[in-house]
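hey team, just a heads up i'm posting the complex here instead of the shared drive bc the drive is being weird again. everything in one block, sequence lines first with there labels, then the predicted structure for the whole assembly after. its two chains so it's a bit long, scroll down
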Amino acid sequence: MLLTLTTFIPLFGALLCLLLPKEEEGLLKGFAFTISLITFATSLFMLGDFDPTRWNHVVDKEWVAAFGIHFKLGVDGISLWLVLLTTFLVPIVLCASWSSINKKMREFVVTMLILETGMIGTFLATDLFVFYVFWEVMLIPMYFIIGIWGGDRKLYAAIKFVLYTMVGSLLMIVAIIYLYIRNHDATGLWSFDYDTLLKVVLSPKEQLLCFGAFALAFCIKVPLFPFHTWLPDAHVEAPTAGSVILASVLLKFGTYGLLRYAIPFFPDAFVRCAPLLNTLAVIGIIYGSLVAFAQKDVKKLIAYSSVAHLGFVVLGLGMWNVKAVDGAMIVNLAHGISTGGLFLCIGVIYERRHTRKLEEFGGLATIMPRYFGVFMVMTLASVGLPGTSGFVGEFLTLVGSFDAYKHWGQLCILFPHPKALTGVATLGVILSAVYMLFLFQKMMFGPLSNPRNRSLRDLSARECAYFAPMIVMALWIGIYPNTFLSDIDPAVQKTVTEMTTKRQVMVADGELPKIVGAPAPAPSPSLEPARQQEMPPLPPSHPELH
Amino acid sequence: MDFDFTQFSSVLPLTALTVAGCVLLLLEAFGSGRQRAYLMPLTLASLGVALVLELLSWGDATLGYTTFHGLLALDRFSIVFNCIFLIGAALTVMLSPAFMREHHFEFGEFYSLVLFATVGMMILAQATDLVTIFLGIETMSIAVYVLTGSFRHSPKSAEGAMKYFMVGAFATSILLYGMALIYGAVGSTALAEIARQAPHVSQAPLFIVGFLLLLVALGFKISAVPFHMWAPDAYEGAPTPVTAFMATTVKAAAFATLIRLVSTAFSRTELAYGSSGWASILSWLAVLTMTIGNLGALRQDNVKRMLAYSSIAHAGYLLVGVVAIAVVGVEARGPLVYYLVAYTFTTAGAFGVVAWIGSRGDERLMIDDWAGLGSRHPGVALAMTIFMLSLGGIPPTAGFFGKFYVFRAALEKPTLIWLVVIAVLNSVVSVFYYLRVVTAMYFREVGREAKPLRATSVSAALLIAAVGVLLIGILPTWLVDVANAAGFAQ
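-- predicted structure starts here --
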């Protein structure tokens, strides 16, 4: 019930917003903000009575009986903090859009709230059909946010965002249906339930194809190099609220999906593909950093830095030991806070100056001291200074990846050694310091040469109010990550162990899938001959004709 | 040869509609100009009566039986299809009066023709004999040819009707030829008898050629590529409510026939597989139809023509479902039924909005005319968005669940994975042009001021369609059960 409430309060709020008069912008904003705060408060109840290694607060309602589709929600250590990140950010984003959205306010709050329902639902779903529905549902509001409130090239950016995501997700639904049918072949039951499908072991060839479909959908979302090209466009054209949500939450679905679905479902295929994933991740780290350094548009710079940061997450997942994966999940959260915060900072300055060109700024530290402080914390968090959120995750990821050597004894020669990859990835940390400090220096220090910057206002009380919790979180993750790790670590350990168990079940190509934990001679032999037949011959005369 | 009047109970809806059509024709001829306003409500009422009669026979049709010496069947499959036709016809009729008034072609026979076409479709859905199939196709087609050309001032309408008629007549002759050859090989026109004889004649050239000709003729009717050339012109030229009628019910009727043929008369494995097997042929037709339909739609700036191509593409997705019958068995008819219901609501709604947007002889079909509709007419823009998302297969709409259902059936055996992958890639392409409409409505500044049709019946039709699309998308259970019942039809 708790999870149903958390998921649908925003949607319900959105429907109520439609009933409010559209001229009453203040009322609409206040109402939507209240709804998002209520959602956040509700979501905090998840923390009570929480066991990170199992599904908590489970909701299970039959949806489409004929197909075994259940409306199933649950939360465990992996999804908990991502859900809280979502519910935490939406009120902040709504507050940040208070004055920057100047048209169609009602439509704006409605799409934001629908988007929130989609995001929460995707994290909480424990039935693959429900997961897919929420996954697609959040696509359309984002498309509207970019398309209606976006910048000059918004049409291009919006449609590119949708098409990139659709290619991946439609192939993913094919793989989901395939897995569902193979589970039925092996067990005779129709089910989209996460735990049920997790136990199905497909043959290596099937795994490779299905993993490919899942991983493509998630890698586009991450975005992993070379699927990242939609991201800078979407980020630059989206309004501040859209960029923040996109960077802080939507990108996390890629990494969350890899950890939750793609890797545990198809472990053999993952082991075979991991070197490729890791290599692409490291290329993404270096490439993202270098390209970020070359940007003249501040927002684009941050967008490319996202490519680099998310590269660390994929690297951690690809190395697949507990430390690296824990680190990756912390980077997920830290990136949500720091990059979200940076986009908010850019939103603030864009609202005042209507430009994001780096060369227009300089010496802001003297006239905007509060802004300077906020910007500094977010920059340092993004760079990964010890004591801020960025440090813990990247450090854990790199340590874990370095250790991964013993797990990855026989690597394909084509792909570099994990120690080498880790070494190169470490360069990425330095590079991030280079481009972020470069940005920070250009904007904050030096003479206040541009006369148009002289009259800039410092942060207002409202802006301080929404930055304060972001700063608290950035420091909290950095100083006491145990709050988060104590939930994430057991869940990750469980997932890693389960995968090891699952890898011990061998299925030859062309064989029926096996079920992990099922009695040894798995499905009853009587089922098999019947299923091998291509098509049972129909009776000569069909009964319906008589 | 005993003649039993009780068997008329199985054709009661048909009879009711035929009588209603004749009465409407007389009213139009002898009624005075002012009284014509009641033609539309009367048509709706008769469609409603037929719908109720259909629903009442649901219980009797559990097992399915044939009447009139095996010429017509009454089973759940035909009942569901008849309901699709009646709903599609009702939505069409609701769109019509305002459209006809605004575009200055008062045309009283319109309603009778819609009813007669619907009767033809119902015969098709119930037909279990090649002769009744022919009867149904002709009854339906001739009425629709006239409807297509009913927009008398418009040269495009005349052109569309001419093309449709010529190609349709050609297809009919191919159909007849195929039937004749099959009769020659089997010695009977009854589908049951053909199914019984199929193992003996499946290698006979006469039979194979006849069967292929039948497929070609039906390919014309469902506008499968490469037999689709007439469709964009006919759809664009016809008055928009008629286009809605053609794209939904006429297509559904042709599919009903195709589905019944492949799941009864030609259900033998040896007829489905192999180089001249229908499953192999239809799977290639499906690929062509989806791809060319979508590529054609990509290039259109005219929304009506874009939707015409999109309806060709949807015939391709449906063909994937028909091919699944070969692999999975008759239960794969369930997904097709569901898809057609979803598609009928969605397409009728989309063409309804196309009909709604123009007035006073100005049809406003170009996509630029749709710019800024989102801020001027938020309700209709929202409805159109729902229809576009549903056509693109994005949840939580009926179109998504329909596609899911069809692909699920096709994936049940690994042989069709390639076909499903092509279908989903096509869906991505289709999302691009469906979203173009949404983009124009919401993301662009207001272009020409829209002067839409203002009529309660049009708004009601759009509302029904939009609510239907969402309802069967979010709560699909009951329709899935109905579709499964119709699919099995034991």
